[in-house]
Write a structure and sequence with these properties.
Blueprint (H helix, E strand, L loop, with lengths): L1 E7 L6 H17 L4 E3 L11 H4 L10 H13 L2 E10 L5 E8 L5 E6 L5 E3 L5 E3 L11 E6 L2 E5 L8 H9 L4 E3 L6 H19 L2 E4 L3 E3 L5 E3 L3 E3 L5 E4 L6 E7 L1 H10 L2 H4 L6
Parallel strand pairs: 1-2, 2-3, 9-10, 10-11
Antiparallel strand pairs: 1-16, 3-4, 4-5, 6-7, 8-9, 11-14, 12-13, 14-15
Helix pairs in contact: 1-3
Length: 272
């Protein structure tokens, strides 16, 4: 049995303040007996004003929030799955990058969000992530975490089953889906999609989320979730407040589900 912690966060436009929030959450996670802390997408900076945000978006080796998370991991002997940070990338664009940090403060894995959130919603919200960010190209998994093999994804990736089919093919024990979901899309789709991805991969899904009213004027849905391989929600942190939540991840549950319903083993190639 592995105990994990999730940070449900209302990140703002000040990276230093966001870094302190993550460090405080790491301390709370450690005091609560957790082996891993999961944080949301854009944990270091959530700012829709890209001109203002640009001053804080630097290469990862100069990122103060990443440094704070690595220091917290070391100080508390804790794994930190840093949901994502905006970091300077190639060609003047940014990367929406997830980091897995081990208790020695080493970056054990990096994943760049593959699917860009380019949408126009009936609420009037319009988002063009691809205008500023370069999409990733690689599926990333990390072995030897306290949860076994961990698959890394970010937010809008949730809507693309082929990515999760590949993570299932790789026999991930758990999949991280950090997010900053809008309220309209979250209300409609957050819970069913998270449960579907857990069921399809026969794996635990861990989805730390942004919540509430942010300094840049946006609202996010919250409801950080942990879903077991059968699709049962074992933690839902609600849509109102930020904070740290805990869940127990039982590998025996994964084995039990895969024995009962061996969909990964039964999968066949489909001719086209």
């Amino acid at each position: 049995m592995t105990r994990i912690a999730l940070l449900q966060m209302t990140a703002g436009i000040d990276p230093a303040a966001n870094g302190r929030t993550i460090a405080d959450a790491a301390g709370e996670a450690a005091r609560g007996g957790a082996d891993m802390l999961f944080t949301p997408e854009m944990s270091g900076l959530l700012d829709r004003d890209r001109k203002r945000a640009a001053a804080h978006i630097v290469p990862e080796d100069a990122n103060s929030v990443l440094a704070a998370a690595r220091e917290a991991a070391t100080g508390h002997r804790l794994w930190v799955a840093l949901g994502s940070l905006a970091v300077a990338g190639e060609g003047g664009k940014w990367a929406n990058r997830s980091f897995l940090i081990d208790p020695a403060g080493t970056i054990a894995a990096r994943y760049d969000k593959i699917h860009m959130f380019d949408v126009d919603l009936q609420s009037g919200e319009s988002w063009r992530e691809s205008n500023a960010f370069t999409p990733g190209e690689r599926v990333v998994t990390a072995d030897y975490t306290p949860l076994g093999r961990l698959g890394l994804t970010v937010c809008y990736d949730l809507r693309f089953p082929a990515l999760f089919e590949e993570l299932g093919r790789r026999r991930c024990d758990a999949i991280a889906i950090p997010a900053a979901f809008t309220v309209p899309t979250g209300t409609a789709h957050w819970h069913p999609l998270q449960r579907a991805r857990a069921i399809e991969a026969s794996a635990w899904v861990i989805a730390a989320a942004q919540v509430g009213e942010h300094a840049d004027g946006r609202r996010t849905y919250g409801h950080s979730l942990v879903v077991d391989p059968w699709g049962e929600v074992v933690l839902d942190m609600g849509g109102e407040t930020a904070g740290v939540g805990f869940a127990e991840i039982d590998p025996a549950r994964t084995a039990e589900v895969r024995r009962q319903l061996p969909s990964l083993a039964n999968k066949r190639a489909i001719a086209t």
